Amino acid sequence: MATERLNSILSHLTPTKSGLSAITQKNPDDVVITLAIRTPLAKGFKGGFKDTQLDYLVYSLLKKVIQKSNIDPQMVEDICLGNVNDGKAAYTIRAAALAAGFPNTSAASSVNRFCSSGLKATQDIANQISLGNIECGIAIGAEMMSAGGDRLAKPFHEEILKNQEAADCMQPMGQTSENVGKDFDISREAQDRFAAESYQRAERAQKAGWFDDEIVPITTMVKDPKSDEAKQVTLTKDEGPRWGTTYESLSKVRPAFPDYGDRSTGGNSSQVTDGAAAVLLMKRSTALKMNQPILAKYVGATVTGLAPRIMGIGPSLAIPKLLGKYNLSLDDIDIIELNEAFASMAVYCLNTLGIDHSKMNVRGGAIALGHPLGATGTRQICTGLSECRRQKKKILLTSMCIGTGQGMAGLFVNEIL
User: Is 357 a known active-site residue?
Assistant: First the structure.
């Protein structure tokens, strides 16, 4: 501890380091991750969580956080839930936390930045720790897409709709995907081939047990659709991967959004999914005092905006912005988790940024695993850090596009080598 404190002081007295040497330094005030776990991802409307409420899923995962970390719940000062579809999420996280075993002194809140909500929750907790407002907190992302979507019930006010980009915020996500495909000439074939690779990677990872150290089992009730009889089940693995998926099979799937184009399909778009993921964060000095295992260091995250009608390409702007802040290049990054909202945007980002596909979505992405909107940001952290540990790699980059035209990216250093 004394050595780390001395290094921290010296770092302020010597010229500022940049690049990898700067972000891989270890200082007592670093924000670190000591636990990153998630539920299995279940198929929306017909999977294992179809009859489960958001509050129960969040409650169940928070109980697992206490069990897996062996942390004294009183040490957790704040819990932030990223969620998109539930307007009462702030009630949910507070009640679920109390029921899970956290004292009434542990505060709670919810955030919503669409598909980046889980990363936004992580950023919010990390920023509080970094500023010294709290020493320990939990970021959780959760979404029950079986409960319905987040489409606007009615148009914006007529004055707002006079602005074209404001009006474009109402475009369905499928339409924005077709816009990207047409505007940037991302062919149906290119999208299907990318999707097939995602499925095949997820199948390979699932068969090899690579997901096992990030997933915790969740016990819940499921109703039989015919008899309406409820039975108890324990979910232990993701339901999204379709083993045996090929380019040839995907090429036969009909377009999902024929009103807007013919390139995006149910086979090359992210799946409708229920699930949750949680990350326990604290100061490095706190983790050492509490004998918590330090999995990774949170470096930072950033967000950017772009034209709403092509919202999918957000990562192509957020990633360079984040890397620029830390004087890094893509060559410095070992593992990339880039959300596959649609193959159109994933192919665009892959090609435009010149990403090495072998280190992006190694275990498949949202096309194969699913995209529970509020959970994806934290799910990517769980999956990415697990893959870093498996490969004994250090630097993780996560990113996603965001509805209404935004992009976000996060940077982490794996410390389990």
Answer: no
